[in-house]
Design brief:
Enzyme class: lyase
Number of domains: 2
Bound molecules: ligand LLP
Function: Specifically catalyzes the decarboxylation of meso-diaminopimelate (meso-DAP) to L-lysine.
Pathway: Amino-acid biosynthesis; L-lysine biosynthesis via DAP pathway; L-lysine from DL-2,6-diaminopimelate: step 1/1
GO molecular function: diaminopimelate decarboxylase activity; pyridoxal phosphate binding
Organism: Sphingopyxis bauzanensis
CATH superfamily of the largest domain: Alanine racemase
Oligomer: single chain
Distance between the termini: 61 Å
CATH class of the largest domain: Alpha Beta
Largest sheet: 9 strands, mixed
């Protein structure tokens, strides 16, 4: 059930009217629903009911808020992390070290060592030198690192170029053609226990076909590696499942995804690992904002809101669509461009969109902002870092403070050698 719904003409998050949050916390602010997070976590698991052995690792990059992570930890989720910072967050949120997978194309030696010291479950190695370095570090610590090799299956994920990762010319993984020999060499290194393969072809995937092609290729590789004498016990299938951003979007359901995975992998006899991000968090959050001004434009008016590209970067970065709806809709519509206060034209959330009619002082939300929203925020234009709220029924709590420009400024200094 959508927990962001109108009650008596006012948009609520679960049982909390959004104007109350705007008044008490201020705007812009991200608002998440605990019930929706839990439901998505459960639905994803249910979708995989025919997969006998599985490990679920929430992709922390999509929403690293500690409150959100704690909800998912309680749902039995581990974490997919891509930096030392994310690793510490996962642990701080109560995720067990062995449930943490370390992905990422540019892990530093210090981060590899940190992962070992923390006792994480698995390293996803992106290329041979990284594997060699991990083996050396592990050996020096008299430890063994559990690892899988990430392959690049060279499939077109059919998503935005900036979030595609599985084409041969993307920076991720190693080609399937070179993987078996590389796997042989890595598996021979003391300090490394090579136990499987990882794959992730991109994000916001709206068709299962490219995933199925990629998984099928990985299945063949697993058979080859076994024929070569390797003990393959784990395959990490990454994340990538898309969500609905606008009316009419029809991404595959979690159940359809799970059924496809179960069918393609039924003879693999491994523990399957998953790294979902957006599909868990995307629709569980909104960015609540206040309309500052409505300014006439050459064609349509500009609705200038107090959120900007620094708070929600996706439209500026990927031309992403986020539904914009009034918190207290009058029923009337208007055609407008929705923009933020930042001083560049890229700070545009929507161009010439038919939307709820709003006026200065009205509240509105950008929907589907729970994933890749707050996590990508910055303080560009010396704006504050946007706060976050988690709603649970008729209560809510600020799970991240607004960080004022003055706090950021306090971490800077003027050299005393400039007079
Ligand atoms: N695993 C790996 C190795 C990844 O690189 C990613 C996302 C995920 C899992 C999670 O993918 P998801 O299930 O969320 O699709 N900032 C962009 C999205 C970047 C995705 C990066 N990798 C956006 O706002 O659309």
């Amino acid at each position: 059930m959508d927990q962001f719904a109108l009650r008596d003409g006012v948009l609520h998050a679960e049982d909390i009217p959004l104007p109350r949050i705007a008044e008490e916390v201020g705007t812009p602010v991200y608002v998440y629903s605990r019930a929706m997070l839990e439901r998505h976590a459960q639905e994803f698991r249910d979708g995989l009911k025919d997969v006998p052995r599985k490990h679920l690792a929430f992709a922390i990059k999509s929403n690293p808020n500690l409150g959100v992570l704690r909800v998912l930890a309680r749902q039995g989720y581990g974490a997919d992390v891509v930096s030392g910072g994310e690793l510490e967050r996962a642990l701080a949120a109560g995720m067990a070290p062995e449930d943490i997978v370390f992905s990422g194309v540019g892990k530093t030696r210090a981060e590899l060592a940190q992962g070992l010291d923390r006792g994480i479950g698995q390293f996803n190695i992106e290329h041979e030198p990284e594997g060699i370095a991990l083996a050396e570090i592990a050996l020096a610590k008299e430890m063994t690192a559990r690892a899988v090799l990430r392959v690049n299956p060279d499939v077109d994920a059919g998503t935005h170029a900036k979030i595609s990762t599985g084409k041969a010319d993307n920076k991720f993984g190693v080609g399937i053609d070179v993987a078996p020999a590389m796997f042989d060499r890595l598996a021979a290194l003391p300090g490394l226990q090579m136990r499987g393969i990882a794959v992730h072809i991109g994000s916001q995937l709206t068709s299962l076909d490219p995933l199925e092609s990629a998984f099928t290729r990985v299945g063949r590789l697993v058979a080859d590696l076994r024929a070569g004498g390797h003990n393959i016990t784990h395959v990490d299938l990454g994340g990538g499942l898309g969500v609905s951003y606008k009316p009419g979007d029809n991404p595959p359901s979690m159940a359809d995804y799970g059924a496809m995975v179960a069918r393609v992998t039924k003879d693999w006899d491994v523990t399957l690992m998953f790294e979902p991000g957006r599909v868990i968090a995307g629709n569980t959050g909104v960015l609540l904002t206040e309309v500052l001004w409505v300014k006439p434009g050459a064609t349509n008016p500009f609705v200038i809101v107090d959120a900007a590209m620094n708070d929600l970067a996706r439209p500026a970065l990927y031309d992403a669509y986020h539904d914009f709806v009034a918190v207290q809709p009058s029923g009337e519509k208007m055609t407008a461009s929705i923009v933020g206060p930042v001083c560049e034209t890229g700070d545009t959330f929507a161009r010439d969109r038919v939307t709820d009619k709003v006026e200065a002082g009205d509240l509105a939300v950008f929907r589907t902002a729970g994933a890749y929203g707050a996590t990508m925020a910055s303080t560009y234009n010396s704006r504050s870092l946007v706060p976050e709220v988690l709603v649970d029924g008729d209560r809510y709590i600020k799970v991240a403070d607004r960080i004022a420009a003055s706090t950021i400024m306090a971490a800077e200094r003027v050299p005393d050698w400039i007079d």
